[in-house]
Design brief:
Layout: H1 6-23, E1 29-32, E2 38-41, E3 48-50, H2 52-60, H3 62-71
Antiparallel strand pairs: 1-2, 2-3
Length: 81
């Protein structure tokens, strides 16, 4: 495999910077990992990775989680505090 040229590397850096800028806009990205887990990027510094059954279980309790968060909102650290 031939070494990339300076211009090719420069173009690649620009593409990566553009992608990074898009990610910072609050959008979430989903990926399937090598071991079959689904990772969510964009929530924090590191991705959140769960397997299919775990995601389904979490989604099934979404209403309960929302209620819990609202009930404990005063105890939680919120962005901007």
């Amino acid at each position: 495999m031939a070494e990339p040229t300076y211009d090719e590397l420069k173009l690649r850096v620009q593409e990566l910077e553009k992608q990074q800028g898009q990610r910072r806009s609050g959008s979430l990205e989903f990926r399937v990992g090598e071991k079959g887990g689904v990772s969510v990027y964009g929530l924090g510094r590191f991705p959140v990775t769960l397997y299919y059954e775990q995601w389904i279980r979490l989604l099934d309790t979404a209403d309960k989680l929302r209620d819990f968060l609202e009930h404990n909102k005063a105890k939680l650290k919120l962005k901007g505090q």
